[in-house]
Fold these 2 entries.
Entry 1:
Amino acid sequence: MNIRNSKYDHALENYSKKIADASVEDMVLNMGPQHPSTHGVLRLELITDGEIVKEVIPHIGYLHRCFEKHAESLTYQQTIPFTDRMDYLASMNNSHAFVMGVERMLGIDKDIPKRIEYIRVLVCELNRIGSHLIAIGTYGIDIGAFTPFLWCFRDREHIMGMLEWASGSRMLYNYIWVGGLFYDLPVGFEERCREFVDYFKPKMVELNQLLTDNQVFINRTANVGVLPLDVAINYGCSGPMLRGSGLKWDLRRIDNYSVYPELEFDVPIGKGEMGTVGDCWDRYKVRVDEIEQSLKMIEQCLDRLQKELKRTPDFDPRAKLPRKTIPKAQDYYVRCEGAKGELGFYFIADGKSEIPTRVKARAPSFNNLSVLPEIAKGVMIADLIAIVGSIDFVLGEVDR
Amino acid sequence: MNFEDIKILLTEKLGLEVVTGEETSGLQPALLIEPDHIAEVCLELRNNPNTYFDFLSSLSGVDYGTATNRFGVVYHLASIPYQTQLTLKISKENNRDLNDLPTFPSITSVYRTADWHEREAYDLVGIFFKGHPDLRRILLPDDWEGYPLRKDYKTAEYYKGIKID
C-alpha cells in the first residue's frame, strides 16, 4: 500500500525522531485539538521542561475544507459562499476582498455605484467590530475573566441581528456579490445602526474599565509574548499583530481601496504603555482602539447613506452584476485589510471560462499563527495561553 | 523604484541570466526569474536600500495544466517603506512522476514566513523546496497520497481501506 517516497520524507523522519527523543529527556504535551483555549481545532505539541515550554510545534489542518480545490471547479460568483467560511467571524471582509479582486480583473471596479461601496464598507466595519469583540471576549476568558466574554457576546448579538436583517443569515452572509449586492439595505437599517452605535459607545467604556485597565489582566499580558517588529515583518504578520508591534501599516490607508480614502480614521498602533512594544497587551489594545475607529467609520458611512446617497425606489443593487464573469487571461493578486490582517487572493484566469484556473487564498491567520513557535520559546505554559489568545486566529481561515 | 529599474538592478547585480523574462500584459507586472537564483534575488531585493521588499505577502505553488506540464511558484513581495509591490515567478517543466517532484530552492532563509507557505505548496501542489528546514505536509494528514491541487489528481476512492462516499 505504501507508495511513499523516502526521498521526500526526511523532514517527517526527523520530526518523529525529535519527538521520540524529547519524550525521553523532556515531556511532550499535547494541547488541543479539543482544548478550549486554542480557539478551535488547533493542536499544539509542546516540548516542556517542567513549566517551561522549550518548543512549540503547531499542527494545523483539522478544519481543512479544500477551499482552493473547490474554487477551481466553481465560478467566481459561486465561490463567494466558500470565502465566507474562511474567517467565519468576519465573513463580509472575506467576500469583500474576493469580490474586489474579481471586479478589478473584469475591469468593472470603477463602475460600482457609490451607495453600494458605502454599504459594503458599512457591513465590513460592523463585521470587523464583531470579530474584534470575539477576540477580546475570548481573550478575557483565556486569562480567567469571565464577564467580558458575556458582555462582548451580548453586544455582538446586535451586530449579528442587523447583518441577519440585511442578508438573511447570521454568520455566513453571501451578501457582497461581484458587481453589486444581494439586496439593498432594509428600510430602517440606518436608523437601527445609529441606535446601536449610540448604545455601544458607553459599553466600550465599561469594557475598558473592566478589562483593559484591570491590574490582574495587565499582569498577565504586559511584557508577555513580545513580538519585535523585525520578526513580525519577516514572519509576514499583518493586521493588529503587526500594528501591535508599533508599525502604522493598514492596507485601508496604504492601498486606499473602496471608499476608505473618503473616510476619516486613525490607525492605532501598540505603544508599549504597560510594558514592551509588541507584547500581548499591546495587541489587545490595538483591537480595542480599532473598534473605536470602526465606529467612527460606520457613523461617516451612515451620514452619507442617509443624505446624498439616500435610498431611492429605483435603486437596484444588482444592476451592475456582470452577465458573464469571464476576465481576460491574466493573474492578479488582490489584498485588503481583513479583520485579522492582510487578506489576499491570487487568481489565475485563463480568459476562456468563468472558472478560475487557480485561486490561492493568503489568509492572515495562517501567517500570524506561524510566528507562534518563535515567540513562545522559553515561556511558561500559562503564558502560552495568553500568547495564543492574543494572536486572535480563526482556524477556519488557517486551514481554509 | 519602478518595475524597469528593478529589472535593471537585478541584471546588473546578479548577472544577465537571472531575469529570464517579464509579463507586463496584466494588471500587475511580473518578473520571470531563473529558478536556481530565486533565493539570491529575494535576498538582494530585501536588503537593497533602494527596494526593501521586506514583506512576503504570498507564495503560491501553481500547476499550469497537463498540456504544458509546467509547475511554478509565484512570489508576491511588498515593500513596507516604499509601499510598492512586486511579483516574481519561477517555473519548470516536470513529467508529473511522484518520485520526481519539481524542485526549487527554498527562500525560508530570506523570509521566515515562507516556511509554512512552502509547506503548503509541497502539501497541495507537490513542489519540493530544497533547503527547507522542515518540509512536512501541513494541511493534509502525513499519510496522504498524491497532491490534490495538481490538475491530474484523481480523487481517492479509499482512505486507509475505508470507502469514501
Entry 2:
Amino acid sequence: MARKTHDVLSVEWVRLELLRTAYSTRGGLFSRMDPRMVLAWYVLLALAPWFTHNLTVLIGMFLLGVISVALARVGPLVLGLFVFGVGADVIGLFVASFLFGGDLTTLIALAELNLKLGAVSMASMAAFVSLDPEKLSDALLSLRAPELLAFGVSYGYRMLPILVDEYVTVFEGQRLRHAPPPTRGLLGWRVILTWCVLAVTAFYPIMLNTAKNVRTTVEALETRGFTYGTNNPAGRALRLAYLKVTALDVAVLAASALAVVGAYWLGAQFPLHR
Amino acid sequence: MQTIPSTTRLATADPEQAASAPGTAPVIVVKDLSFRYPGADRDTLRNVDLTIERGDFVAVVGGNGSAKTTLCKTFNGLVPHYWNGDFAGHVHVGGQDTWDSTVAELSSRVGYVYQDFQNQLVRPTVRDEIAFGPLNFGHEDYRERTEEALAQLGIAHLRDSFVWQLSGGQAHLVALAAVLALRPEVIVVDEPVAELDPARAREIYLRLRDLNENHGITVITIEHHAEFVAEFASSVVLMADGAPVWHLPVQQAMDRHQDLQAHGIPAPDAVSLTAAVGEEPVALDVSSAAAMLRPYVHERSTEVPVARAEPAPAAEVVASLRGVHHGYRSVSGGLCPVLVDLDLDLHSGERIALVGTNGAGKTTLMKLLTGLAVPRAGTLTVDGIDTRSRSAARLADHVAYLYQHPQRMFLKDTVRADVALFPVGRRLPDAQQLVDEVVERVGLTSLADRDGRALSGGQQRRATIAIGLAMRPSLLLLDEPTSSLDVRSRHDVTSMLDSLAETVRCAVVATHDMELVATWATRVIVLDQGRVLADVSPRELFSTPEVTAQARLVPPQAARIARELDLEPLALTAAELLTRLRTSASSTARPARSPSEDR
C-alpha cells in the first residue's frame, strides 16, 4: 500500500483545525460582536430549549442552531464530530430499543432529548468558535469572573498550539521507537490497539516537560506585575475599556430573541407532543 | 546568617576600574551580598561586591554553577522576594534598596529576559503580550508603550501575530519588547545565544547595543560566547564560585584571556590568535584582528592544505531524492511549498551538514528521510527502499532521527529504558548487551538509571545520541545537536559526533553552528527557500561569500579573519590559521585553546 500525503483526516489536519477553531480564524458573524454580547446570546439559546416539551418549538430551536452554525463558520472537524456524535446516539438508541421490542415510535419518543441536546450543542459551537482567546478572557473579566480564571483561559489558549506540537513530536517518537505489531490482526485491530496505547502514553512525557517549563512562567508573571494587577483595579478598567456594544450586537441579540419567541409562538399554534 | 569567608576571590571588584560614565550615580550597587537557597547546604552567592554604572553594557561570564543567574535575579528582587532564602548584604537599584522594595516595583526599573524566553510569553497575541505588563500596572498610556517597544526593536509588523507563530528570534524580541514596555533602566538578558542561531543572536545583540547607546538603557547579559562579549560588551564581570573574580573594561578583560580560559570560557579566535603572535592589547573583533595579524602572515597561499576528506566517487548511495517536492498546509488553508524539486544523493562515509535559515526546509527534509512524511511529488529512497512503501515504524530500522529538543525524546523514566526501547521492543538478540555498550560509549553509565529530564543539557544530548545509536541506523539524522549547550558540553557532544562514523554509514546534521560545520562536516548542503543553493565542502562554502550571505550564514570567526587576510586556501579554525602565521615565540608559547581546537 503506497503512502501519500493526506490534507484532511491526518494528524496535521486535526492540529490545524484545532488552531483554526480556537483562534477563530474563519471569521463569521459572531466574531465581529462584543464578546459579552456573544456570551449573552449563548445563554439565551442554550437555556431556551429546556423550558418546553413541545416538539414544534424544539424543531424551531434546532433550525436556529443550524443557522447559527452556518453564520459562525464552524469548521469541519468540530461539525463532523458533532454530526457523528448525534448520529451515533440516535442509531445506537434505535438499535437498543429495537432489540428490546420497541419500534419507530420509540425513536420519536427519543427525539425530544436529541433535539434539545443538538440545539444547545450547536449554540455552544457557534459561540465558542467565534471567541478568540483575548476576547473570551476579557469578557469573563468584565463579567466579574476571578482574574485567575480569565488569565487561565487565555493562557490555556496560548499553550494549546505548543502542547499540540509537543504532543505530535512525542507521538512521532513513540511510533518510530516502539516496535510495530508483527501482524495487523482482524481489521487491523492490533495496529489500532498499538496506536491507542501510544496516544495515551504520549501524555506522560509532556506533563513532566510542562511542569518543568512553567517555573519560568510563574516567575515571569511575578515580574510583569500579574499579582500587582489582581490587587489593583486600574489595570482591569484599562484592559476592558475597548469593549463596546454596537448596533450589530443589539440587532443580532434582538433577532435571536425574536426567533426564540417565534418558535414558542409557532409551538403554541401547532403543538406537537409525542 | 553565617557568611563564609571568601577565599576564592582573586581580586576585589573595584568600581573605579569599571567603565564609568563620570558624574552619574551607579545604577546597581551590590554590597557584601550573600545568598543561600532554602534547603541548600552552602551559599550560592558569597560576599559579592559589585557596582554597575548607568549606561554600561555588562557581560556576566563564568562557568556552570558560578551563580550568574542568581546574581542577576537579585537585581529585580526575585531574590529575595520570590526566592526566599538566607539573604545578607545590600542590593541598591537606582538608589532603592531591593530588600525594602517589591518585585512589582522593581520590575519597572529592571527588566529580565529568561534563557527559556518561550516560557516567558504568557498571552496569545504579540500586542497583548507586550501590553500585559503596562496594563497590570495600570499605565494609561499602555498603547503608546506597546507601539514604542515594537518600534524600538523593529518588530511592528508582528503586532497581530499569534505567539506560537513566531520563530525563535522573533519570540526573543517579543519577550524583550514586553520587558521594554515597562520602560526599565536596566535590562538583564540571560544567555540570548543559547536558544538562537548565531545570526539571530547577532541581531539581538545589535538591538541591545542600540537600546544601550541610543536609549540610555543599561544592558546586562549573561553570556557563554566570548565572541559576543568581546564585540558588544563594554565591561565584563567574571564570576566564579558565587563571587566576582573581577569586573574590568572589556579590553582589559580580554587581555586576561588566561583567566577566562581557566574558568571555562574559551577566548574568541580574534583574541587567541592575536595573543598567540604576542600582540598586546589583543584584538576584539575580526577586522582589527586581521589588521594586527597581517604582518605575521608568512604563507598567503599554500600547497599543503588540510587533507580534504571527499568521498570516493564509487561510495555507496545510502539515500537518494529524485524530484522531491513537499509543502504543508497553513492555518489559513493555503499550501506553503517547503522543498522544491530536490535531487540529492547521500553516500556512505559522508558527514553531511544541512544548513540554511529557519524555514529553508531543513527539518522538512529530515522528516521526509525518516518516512514520518512522504513527499507530495518525486521519490525518496533510503537503503534502496521507497519511503512510500513502508511505514515510518518499519523505516526506523534504517533511519534514526534525533529531535532538536532532547526532552521530547525521553519517553520512559530512565535513560537506560529509553535507550533500550527500540532494540528490546524489536527483540534484537543482543539487545541488553547493545544497550550497555551504547550507554557506556556516551559516558552515561553512572547516570543511566536517572530520568533523562533530570540531566544537564549536555548529558541530555548524549542520552539522545545513545538512543539513536541503539537503533543501529544506516542513516542518522540530528537536528541542531549543539544548540543551547555551554562550551564544555558542546565539546562533549562534538567529539561524540566525530566517533559516529564507526557505527553509522551516513550522518546528517541540520545546524546553525558554523564551527561544527567547519570542523566536523565533509559535505555541506546549503538549503535556501526549498532549493539546494550549494553542495560543497566546508572550505569552499566559507570561501564563497555570495553563498554565505544569501543563506545568512556567519562563518566561524577564524575563517572570517582568514578571509580578510586573503589566505588561500582558507583556514577554517584558529589552529589551522596559526600554522600560516609567523609567531615570534611559536615554539614556546602556545595560544590559548579555542573551542575549535578542542576537537
